[in-house]
Design brief:
The complex is a heterotrimer of chains A (335), B (286) and C (290). Chain A is an alpha+beta fold. Chain A is 28% helix and 32% strand. Chain B has eleven helices and one strand; from the N terminus they run βααααααααααα. Classes of the chains: A alpha+beta (335), B mainly alpha (286), C mainly alpha (290). Chains in contact: A-B, A-C, B-C.
């Protein structure tokens, strides 16, 4: 069940938006499609929703092949980045739209719309026009509208992209809680990795028309399949021959196995974090073996510590320390 | 009042800074939309493209020799020259006056402003022949103020001024309305007087709009017929190109009419393209 | 010339100030500016129009009634209504359709279609007439023989006048509706699709309400334009009194023959034009809201 997209390919002229993409979304899950702009994630979402037709490949929703079926018959709810509110209709009429199209009775419509407006906390705005609502309120209305017709699948295209940071965070939490209550299979597109990591059950990273990796947020963060995924999901820095996360680097005051010497160049306090930039001077052999080839390359490595750690080490600009990846760090070989 | 869609009757609105849905958001043609497109193109072709092609075809059909012979008669040359010069002159005058009027309407408050706005729209909405009658009443043989411009060039010019008045006003007004005065205030605080501020701050911002309006005015003046035909009195020295073409049609000399028409079309296209270029150049520098 | 009144509203909200007409003591140079502008508009427009209104009133009510109720006038009114009405109808349908195509679909030649729709504005009315004659005239046009065989008369008959009037007013509805469709984007339509609405339902419930003011604006512009068309119609009509004479052609005939009635008929047209202007100015603020 859920959603299955097989071998989806889509071109716009010479530009290949999606290249033989396969995706499975489990029923009832909240899945994020994450990736840079232009990478294909919105296109994939729209193909699933029927707003766009793939050049080749098929989409199966809840066991039913929907590839040729227009969006109005797929029973898929869609939420747009810029709300797509029906500006000439009140909030009530907006939410009721899908039900009116399906010619439901007035009483039934009233009951359902009221229920949904209460769910999204917009009951007192029922008679207002969308232009009188804030961005966050309009998006909640859009969600209520999409849920009104009890879709099998809910698709959200960068739903919080047009909102302020604070509102975005609030709505993020709210979406998660809504999903926990309503349990509709949900797919949402975002380019904000923090949002994807925080909200989703399952994360799909898409870049340049291809899926880079699929898994739970923790899996992708801790065990990225490649440099792109690692870099996209969080900060990355280079230490010697490896790519590692700045907060996964141990700072030592004395040489040790596998450690690289470095000098502190810059220190910045940001809230409770301390961010250090260190210059690794390459020449020393690290295990005392006179025949080992010196690591001739020099790098700037970023390290992130807590205040406590930085104070304990008494770090200053110019301090000489040794760096190595911590034990359970995810590490990739640098190219 | 003219803030938003300030398109006067008969104006083509330039797309300018408006957003257009990107390619990736558009839908491909389906059965209904494809048929619709076919019908639209068919209508457009039958109504506009094919008839215009017929004009050009008839003009060049008998060969370049006949074409040049037709357009180089004394009468034809005189008519074309008068038309182009008059249209250029009138566009220039109304570019200046239109900007002035737009400025006063936007920046000044006085009783009767709404009436002035209506007056400006009158040359648009008025049938051209009525405009001609109206002007002939004032400047013609029975003129109450003793100004007789009947069958004179000033008469033709005043008719063209009348019909092209609204264009620059209506293209400049919305731009002026949306200008933020802070740049002007900054200039004033730095010591610039009103004139210098206008020239250096405001003018660059409104030049594209002025060019747009002037282009529309020029196009209109080049082709104007109804308002000119009464006051020009059928004399060769006051005959504009459209009148000349009409005479040729009435006399049955269709290829000659088509030839002159083609010349007129070409001149219009060239000038409009040049003014469009001016507008883009000014906009990119702004 | 500059507004030196402190803009308190802007200062309070920190937003950039809009130009506000100053209410302070007006300097001489600003008075001169106002005077020049008003004098220009007054002399150029108000004076001649006012004179015609005056002359009409001067000639009296009887003359007015005579002029507009004679058989030729009645026939002209009727013909104008038919021709203008048909042209406006056709161009409205074309306008909405073309705007939808240009805003929502991708197809080759979209830019060309856009350009072609703009063409009629820059063509002289006489050339419009000539073009139609050279396309549809029985003895003079490309389609002439075919039309003659079928017994369809376009030139020197009402269909030709409708075509001429439609030609000159072609872009008006498109140019008003298209920007609104472009700005509102495709999302409302797609949202409606995802909610289950078919094409007709979307058009009636979503698209039409969105474009209704722009559409009304365009239609009124078209009405003003089609009622007033003269040059193109003169060429294609043959100007036969009572049969192919519109009100504008009748005004011309009366004026050129120095027969009475030109002023009175003109005043009717001026009144209609003024009415259109008033309606347009009422519709303007709604332009973007839909």
């Amino acid at each position: 069940m859920g959603i299955e997209a097989r071998a989806i390919t889509k071109r716009f002229g010479a530009f290949v938006a999606l290249d033989e993409v396969n995706l499975t979304v489990a029923s009832g899950q909240l899945t994020a499609l994450l990736g840079p702009s232009g990478g294909g994630k919105s296109t994939l979402l729209r193909i699933i929703g029927g707003l766009e037709e793939a050049d080749s490949g098929s989409v199966v929703i809840d066991g039913v092949e929907v590839s040729g079926i227009p969006p109005q018959r797929r029973n898929v709810g869609f939420v747009f980045q810029h709300y797509a509110a029906f500006k000439h209709l009140s909030v009530y009429r907006n939410v009721a739209f899908g039900l009116e199209i399906r010619k439901r009775g007035k009483a039934e419509i009233r009951q359902r719309v009221t229920e949904l407006l209460e769910l999204v906390h917009l009951e007192q705005f029922a008679d207002r026009m969308p232009s009188q609502l804030s961005g966050g309120q309009r998006q909640r209305m859009a969600l209520a509208r999409a849920l009104a017709v009890e879709p099998k699948v809910l698709l959200l295209d960068e739903p919080f992209g047009a909102l302020d940071t604070k509102v975005r965070k609030e709505l993020r939490d709210w979406l998660r809680r809504l999903h926990d209550e309503v349990h509709v299979t949900t797919v949402f597109v975002t380019h904000d990795q923090e949002e994807a990591l925080e909200v989703s059950d399952s994360l799909v990273v898409i870049n340049a028309g291809r899926i880079e990796q699929v898994g739970s947020p923790n899996e992708l963060y801790d065990h990225p399949a490649n440099e792109f995924v690692m870099g996209f999901l969080g900060p990355v820095t280079r230490l010697g021959e490896h790519l590692v996360r700045p907060h996964d680097i141990e700072v030592l005051t004395a040489d040790s196995t596998g450690a690289v010497p470095a000098t502190v160049r810059r220190l910045a306090r940001v809230g409770f974090q301390v961010r250090a930039e260190l210059h690794t001077a390459g020449a020393q052999a690290t295990n005392g073996d006179p025949d080992s080839v010196p690591d001739a390359a020099e790098f700037d490595t970023a390290v992130q510590l807590t205040r406590g750690q930085a104070d304990a080490l008494d770090l200053q600009v110019g301090s000489r320390v040794w760096l190595r990846p911590s034990q359970h760090a995810s590490v990739l070989a640098a190219r | 009042m003219a803030e938003l869609s300030a398109a006067p009757a008969g104006t083509v609105r330039r797309r300018g800074a408006r957003s257009v849905p990107p390619e990736t958001e558009r839908a491909p043609l389906g059965v209904t939309s494809g048929t619709g497109l076919g019908l639209a193109v068919l209508w457009l072709s039958l109504l506009v493209l094919v008839p215009l092609a017929a004009v050009v075809s008839r003009a060049v059909g008998a060969g370049p020799g006949d074409f040049w012979a037709a357009v180089s008669t004394t009468e034809a040359v005189a008519a074309i020259r008068l038309t182009v010069l008059a249209a250029a002159g009138v566009s220039l005058v109304n570019a200046v006056m239109g900007t002035l009027v737009a400025w006063v309407l936007v920046r000044e408050e006085f009783p009767g402003k709404r009436l002035v706005e209506v007056l400006i729209d009158i040359p648009f909405a008025l049938p051209t022949i009525v405009a001609g009658l109206v002007l002939t009443t004032l400047y013609g043989p029975n003129s109450p103020i003793g100004v007789t411009w009947y069958a004179t060039r000033p008469g033709v010019l005043v008719a063209l001024l009348f019909v092209t008045l609204p264009f620059v006003v209506r293209t400049v007004e919305p731009v002026l309305l949306s200008l933020e005065t802070e740049a002007e205030q900054a200039a004033a605080s730095l010591g610039a007087g009103p004139v210098r501020t206008f020239v250096r701050i405001v003018l660059p911002a409104i030049t594209p709009a002025i060019a747009s309006g002037a282009a529309l005015a020029f196009g209109r003046a080049m082709g104007e017929y109804g308002s000119v035909v009464l006051i020009s009195g059928q004399l060769p020295r006051t005959e504009v190109a459209s009148q000349y073409i009409y005479q040729q049609i009435e006399s049955g000399y269709l290829p000659d009419a088509a030839a002159t028409a083609t010349v007129l079309l070409v001149i219009s296209v060239l000038v409009l393209a040049a003014l469009n270029g001016l507008r883009s150049w000014a906009a990119s520098r702004g | 010339m500059l507004s030196t009144t402190p803009d308190r509203a802007a200062a309070a909200t920190g937003t950039p100030s809009r130009p506000r007409p100053s209410r302070r003591r007006v300097s001489t140079s600003r008075w001169v500016l106002r005077l020049v502008a008003l004098a220009y508009v007054g002399l150029l427009v108000a004076l001649p129009v006012g004179l015609v209104l005056w002359r009409t009133v001067d000639q009296g009510a009887a003359a007015f009634v005579d002029a507009i109720s004679g058989p030729e006038a009645i026939a002209a009114f009727r013909l104008t209504a038919i021709v203008a009405g048909s042209a406006v109808l056709v161009n409205t349908v074309f306008g909405v359709g073309a705007a939808l195509l240009l805003a929502r679909y991708r197809f080759r030649g979209r830019a060309l279609l856009d350009l072609a729709i703009d063409l009629p504005i820059s063509v002289s009315p006489i050339i419009v007439g000539l073009a139609l004659v050279l396309a549809f005239g029985w003895t003079t046009g490309w389609f002439g023989p075919a039309l003659q065989n079928a017994g369809l008369q376009v030139i020197f008959a009402t269909p030709g006048m409708v075509l001429a009037t439609a030609f000159v007013s072609l872009p008006l509805v498109v140019r008003e509706v298209l920007p609104v469709l472009n700005e509102t984007g495709l999302e409302q339509d797609q949202a409606a699709r995802s909610l289950g609405a078919n094409a007709v339902q979307r058009f009636v419930r979503i698209t039409l309400p969105t474009i209704r003011w722009a559409l009304a604006y365009g239609v009124v512009l078209s009405i003003a334009r089609t009622l007033g068309e003269f040059g193109a119609v003169r060429v294609v009509s043959g100007n036969v009194g009572g049969q192919t004479q519109t009100v504008t052609l009748l005004v011309d005939e009366r004026a050129e023959q120095f027969e009475p009635g030109a002023y009175q008929l003109s005043v009717v047209l001026i009144a209609v034009a003024a009415l259109c202007i008033v309606v347009i100015s009422l519709l303007r603020p709604h332009g973007k809201d839909g």
